[in-house]
Amino acid sequence: MDTLFIGQNIIKLKSVDSTNNFLTNLSNKSSLVEGTLVVGYNQLDGRGQHGNKWQSEAGKSLTISVLLFPKIDLDRQFLFNKCISLSICETLKHFDISPRIKWPNDIFIDDKKVAGILIENSIQQQIISKSIVGIGMNVNNDSLDFTFATSLKIHKSMHFDMDHLLVLLCKELERHYLLLKSDTKSIIERYDNHLYRVNLPTTFLANDSVVKGVIKKVDDLGRLVLEIEGEIHSFSWGELRFDFS
Which residue in 13, 56, 95, 128 is a FRET match for 134, CA 20 to 30 A apart? Predict the structure, then answer.
């Protein structure tokens, strides 16, 4: 692995309930170096944000977790999320793919989900001391159960070398993680430029109501900023969701 630290220590598992669970438990029991990477070839009980399930197919989906020690203020938590999302987008660009970041934590190709992110942080005195970054990506899947899901193979009509993809992902994760420490402005601008449906009229559901607005950005607190009838409104995750009907 041609990186400084991410992926220099790799743990490969033929089968695991969740790579995040495994790495969390291991890091609590052992002293692990930053950048330790867990790869699960068959993840049986993958998790997404807010208790959602992440379904993966043995040997065809990329499911990994990375141990990082950000040491950043808690109020920059979503900036860290932006950094990880950008890393995945830049990885896919190596294959002439133009991904978008669907707020708050999904990676889309066109209008379909190809990857998801689950970041679990440990907080000490308002500082993010440890992060377990979980990434699940549909790679060589030939078909998927969900209407709004796709894979790299389906999109490009070609088979992907999983090891090569993993190397590229580790390089981009490291590059953006280091950039996070030195050029916050660049992270924010590039993230907003990659937003799914940015500057486009979009319909959302908020409880039983329909909300129509134009996506402008995601603010420092991770709230989606919409322009609605000429006025700016900010929404936290859980207050509204995309309407794909």
Answer: 95
**Of the candidates 227, 238, 222, the residue with the CA atom closest to the CA atom of residue 80:** 222
Q: 201-242 — its CATH code? A: 2.30.30.100
User: Token pair 């999320």 is at which residue?
Assistant: 81
Give tens-digit pLDDT for 9-21: 999 999 899 999 9
* Single-letter residue type at 217: K
DSSP 92-118: HHTTT--EEEETTTEEEETTEEEEEEE
Determine the Cα–Cα distance for residues 17 and 46; give it in Å rounded to an integer: 7
Q: Output the CATH code of domain 10-193.
A: 3.30.930.10
pLDDT tens, 160-170?
999 999 999 99
**Nearest residue to 241 (alpha-carbon basis) of 103, 83, 65:** 103
Q: Evaluate whether 104 touches 218 at the Cβ level (below 8 Å).
A: yes
| Sheet of strand 209-218, all strands in order from the earlier edge strand to the far edge | 231-235, 224-228, 209-218, 201-206, 241-242
Domain extent listing, the chain: 10-193, 201-242
